[in-house]
Write a structure and sequence with these properties.
This protein is an alpha+beta fold. It has 20 helices and 10 strands.
């Protein structure tokens, strides 16, 4: 199977080149048979890479440790679920998985455009094939720094057992988090390729946006899910009580999301007002290139990250590809410069176009700020010879003002008129949200002052912006549903349902905005008002945090197939009332790549929207004996208010995004 998979990878080089050549020749000479042959080449590449990927998975399932990659990331006692997810556990396998997704999406473009007569999708298949070829070359093993994932050890030497996957990756979160990020990243290739195809074909109007809109929504939705799952993994597995620390890998996933969000807003201006043609090409190009830049940052090892598990020295190849592809886009833009000029201009600064454009500037500016902070260690090393890491506090300080402005814009955009906002419309649309926002801000200020939080300016501003947005969007739903119910002579609830069904894109977007407000409130509580207590405890000793009292009751030791688990049982009381027990632990993995490694197995208890979170410091393998002999356990306890509101808000965002994605395009329906 390994040899069959390697042969498939090499054959895919030729099928990919064939697809590019036939598509280009067929489109330029208007030879339909050549175009069909090129499409078949794209499908053939997918079939070959699927065979190679299946061969690698077969090696995992059958414990074929003669394969180098299998021996590095799997072992006989590794659960089957983690044997399969080891596919993306290190560099070579993750590149093959990325390649498989690119070929899958290429085949889907072929399948969904079989009846298209304009050939825009065929033009898009050429850049898709170029991306495929880049990753095929990487996984052939010809590039220094990464080997063929199907390569065997020399001289048929087979290891008796494998080293096993990194223990931090042996968690259910890792079954879904990396694939969702990969799907989000890789699917951005399709709208980018439609943009490049439109430039090549000279079809720079809104047609390419229409054809790629669902792909962009899929990218945005799945990337949102992937980022959230990553935050949840960090929260549960790393033992630091948080879910976001502006880690380079976190930033690498967040920056394309910001650019994709900007693009989704910007294209509405082109659809409605035939403006920002060039800007939209630039935005989708940046979103795509930032997925590769993020891969360079996280895979090259130039910055350290608790999330990086597959580093190598192939980063410069990604930089070369980013540079060449960017130059190609610039050349096409220059060639089609006259076609990209927009016939319309902004008529007023008080308009929905201006609000969306400001939203774009803020999102792009925020991306550049995050990029600067992420690359700062590289910059300082180049200048001074020493890496200087940027602390989390830097990001928290510099993003708060842009973040609050973006929150406010999620309410301003939907209630602002196209072209120009008249004074009467301003009073009618903005009066209620402003009044409700001010009332909420005053109440928040009083509450925080009574609880001893004197410096809470940003918290009050966040509450004002959040309530402003909720009031503005709620009024949009109310007025629309009331009018729909009146026209259809039905009830308000039925009118609301008909309203959303009639314009899923618009009102799905409003639901996304509501979810964003909920996320902001969750971040405000969990980041701004958490409690942390650290202490060393012996058997029977207690500690307090907020309204909770924790007492060391006992210890436990459990044996599992590939690790042992040792931990402490805490009796929990709240306001003097027993609330059961919590069982934080440490996991001791006997096969962890380079030797034994332990992991933090935090215990998290939900109390409504808040969490009580316990993590243990380093422990010996026999925890009960350690505690019985008078040993001390190091404990960190967090009380995280409103942290579950973050996950709730993301769920609402996902629902809204799915609703918006389900609408069939209708021109002007924004």
């Amino acid at each position: 199977m390994a040899e069959l998979g390697q042969a498939a990878i090499w054959l895919s080089v030729f099928s990919c080149l064939w697809a590019m050549a036939m598509l280009w020749m067929g489109l330029r000479r208007k030879n339909y048979n050549a175009v069909v042959s090129g499409r078949n080449g794209v499908v053939g590449t997918f079939a070959l890479i699927t065979l190679a990927t299946g061969a690698l998975i077969y090696g995992f399932v059958t414990d074929d440790f003669s394969m180098k990659y299998v021996a590095e990331v799997s072992s006989t006692d590794q659960p089957m679920m983690y044997k399969i997810t080891a596919l993306w556990g290190r560099m070579s396998g993750s590149l093959l998985f990325w390649l498989w997704l690119v070929t899958l999406f290429g085949a889907l473009v072929v399948w969904t455009s079989q009846r298209a007569a304009d050939h825009l999708a065929d033009y898009a298949l050429i850049p898709i094939s170029i991306v495929q070829l880049f990753f095929i070359i990487l996984v052939t093993g010809l590039i220094e720094g990464v080997y063929n994932p199907l390569e065997r050890f020399p001289n048929d030497r087979a290891a008796l057992d494998g080293a096993g996957m990194n223990p931090l990756l042996q968690t259910p979160s890792m079954v879904f988090h990396p694939p969702s990020l990969y799907v989000g990243f890789v699917s951005l290739t399709v709208p980018f390729s439609f943009a490049i195809g439109a430039l090549a074909a000279g079809k720079t109007g809104g047609e390419w946006i229409v054809k790629s809109r669902r792909w962009m929504m899929v990218s945005w939705l799945v990337l949102t899910l992937g980022i959230t799952l990553g935050g949840n993994w960090a929260y549960r597995e790393l033992g630091w009580g948080g879910y976001w620390a502006w880690d380079p890998v976190e930033n690498a996933s967040f920056m394309p999301w910001l650019l994709g969000t900007a693009y989704l807003h910007s294209v509405m201006i082109q659809e409605k007002r035939n403006m920002l043609k060039l800007w939209n090409i630039i935005l989708i190009t940046l979103a795509f290139e930032f997925t590769l830049l993020g891969t360079f940052i996280t895979r090259s090892g130039i910055v350290s990250s608790v999330h990086a598990f597959a580093q190598s020295d192939i980063g410069h190849y990604f930089l070369i590809y980013i540079g060449l592809s960017t130059l190609g886009v610039i050349a096409l833009i220059a060639y089609r410069w006259n076609d990209l000029k927009s016939p319309n201009r902004l008529e007023s600064l008080l308009s929905r176009e201006s609000a969306f454009l400001l939203n774009n500037w803020m999102l792009v500016g925020l991306t550049l700020i995050i990029l600067w902070g992420t690359l700062w260690p590289i910059i300082t090393e180049g200048v001074t010879g020493e890496k200087v890491a940027v602390p989390e506090s830097f990001f928290n300080q510099v993003v708060i003002i842009p973040g609050l402005l973006l929150l406010l814009l999620t309410g301003i955009g939907p209630i602002t008129s196209w072209k120009k906002l008249t004074p009467s419309n301003f009073r009618r649309m903005f009066a209620k949200p402003i009044v409700f926002g001010l009332i909420g801000a005053v109440l928040a200020l009083v509450y925080l002052a009574l609880n001893g939080h004197t410096s809470a300016v940003y918290s009050v501003l966040c509450v004002f912006a959040g309530i402003f947005v909720l009031a503005a969007i709620s009024d949009e739903f109310y007025r629309g549903a009331k009018l729909r119910a009146k026209r259809q002579e039905t009830g308000f609830v039925d009118g609301l349902f008909r309203l959303v069904k009639r314009n899923k894109r618009r009102y799905g977007g409003y639901i996304v905005h509501i979810g964003i407000v909920i996320v902001y409130i969750g971040i405000l509580g969990s980041k701004g008002y958490y409690l942390l207590e650290s202490k060393g405890l012996q058997h029977g000793e207690s500690m307090e945090i907020g309204k909770f009292n924790l007492t060391v009751e006992s210890a436990f030791q459990e044996e599992h197939p590939n690790f042992s688990l040792g931990g402490v049982v805490f009796a929990v009381e709240k306001d003097g009332k027993p609330m059961g027990t919590m069982r934080p632990a440490r996991g001791f993995y006997h096969k962890a790549g380079q030797g034994e490694q332990d992991t933090i197995e935090s215990s998290i208890r939900h109390f409504g929207l808040n969490d009580l979170y316990i993590a243990l410091g380093p422990l010996p393998e026999n925890v009960p004996a350690h505690l019985e002999s008078g040993g001390i356990v190091s404990v960190q306890v967090y009380h995280n208010p409103l942290v579950n509101v973050v996950w709730l808000g993301v769920a609402v965002m996902m629902i809204g995004g799915f609703v918006a994605m389900c609408e069939k395009h209708a021109k002007g329906n924004v």
